[in-house]
Design brief:
- The protein is α+β, with helices and mostly antiparallel strands and about 270 residues long.
- Among the domains are: about 60 residues; about 110 residues, EIF_2_alpha (Alpha-Beta Plaits, 2-Layer Sandwich).
- It contains 8 helices and 6 strands; from the N terminus they run H-H-E-H-H-H-E-E-H-E-H-H-E-E.
- It has a 4-stranded antiparallel beta sheet with strand order 2-3-1-4. Strands 5-6 form a two-stranded antiparallel sheet.
- The radius of gyration is 59 Å and the shape is elongated.
Length: about 270
């Protein structure tokens, strides 16, 4: 870990450069690549002519919500628009939902410009009211809130996107440097192993020297372990008899002496 952090400290300029590139990419995406979308909203209220609550019939409300996205309602709206918007694109940009336990339907349409979004909502509401009158024979749709003109795009978060781009660039740089560090370390290890395996061949002179050294060490006697001598116990010895010999001292011969003791006479007992 210490070596890895030290490696990162050496590559601080690379990390800073890649992080700056991520920040620049975020700015380019926010200002030139991202398509800002504007959303216009309207609120509708469904009632009956006899003042009965429509919420008592949930199926009827669901039919109204699905009718807002039908071709019968949207094709007249697209025919009035100067910009050629496909039907599938318009359907995907519509949000229609009913609030629970109410007779309220909220309609929202997103477009590339706030004026287009507002005109689409107004045209959809008018076409929807006409189709309800033709199908059900009753004018029970009231506009509570007219379509508004969006001031800012709803899908653009410049600060958050810049932070995300910067963090992604920094994280990707750190990960790539880690793999580079690991790859270099693996190559160094394999190179060391290969140098250990490769040995230079012996020359004839070196081989003769090695054989001679082996023979010398083979002849060398092994060291003998020193053993402490056992204690010497004096043995019992008998006195030696001195033989009769003539001992000369000077010119005169000397008489040899004997060590035989005289035997005492043994008394006989009856």
């Amino acid at each position: 870990m210490y070596r890895l952090l030290k490696y990162y400290a050496k590559k601080w300029l690379v990390i800073l450069l890649c992080t700056s590139l991520g920040l620049a990419a975020g700015l380019v995406y926010n200002n030139y690549l991202q398509v800002p979308l504007y959303k216009s909203n309207a609120t509708l209220l469904l009632i009956n002519s006899d003042s009965q609550k429509v919420s008592q019939d949930a199926t009827l409300i669901n039919n109204y919500v699905e009718l807002l996205k039908s071709r019968r309602v949207l094709e007249p709206v697209l025919a009035r628009q100067s910009s050629h918007i496909p039907y599938d694109e318009l359907v995907s940009s519509i949000e229609a939902k009913n609030e629970k336990s109410t007779e309220v339907i909220k309609l929202a349409i997103s477009a590339k410009s706030p004026e287009t979004s507002k005109s689409l909502v107004e045209g959809t509401v008018d076409s929807f009211k006409k189709q309800i009158k033709e199908l059900y024979g009753d004018d029970n749709v009231l506009v509570v809130d007219d379509a508004n003109l969006a001031a800012e795009p709803y899908n653009v978060y410049k600060e958050l996107q810049l932070v995300l781009f910067t963090l992604i660039a920094a994280t990707a740089t750190v990960i790539i440097l880690f793999f580079v560090y690991d790859f270099k370390g693996g190559r160094v290890k394999t190179a060391k192993i290969r140098t250990r395996k490769k040995r230079k061949p012996f020359k004839l002179s070196q081989l003769a020297f090695v054989m001679k050294a082996k023979s010398i060490f083979a002849r060398r006697p092994k060291p003998v372990k020193k053993v402490a001598p056992a204690p010497v116990v004096p043995a019992k010895t008998k006195p030696k008899a001195v033989s009769k010999k003539k001992i000369t001292s000077g010119t005169k011969p000397l008489k040899a002496t004997t060590t035989k003791a005289k035997k005492k006479p043994v008394k006989k007992t009856k």
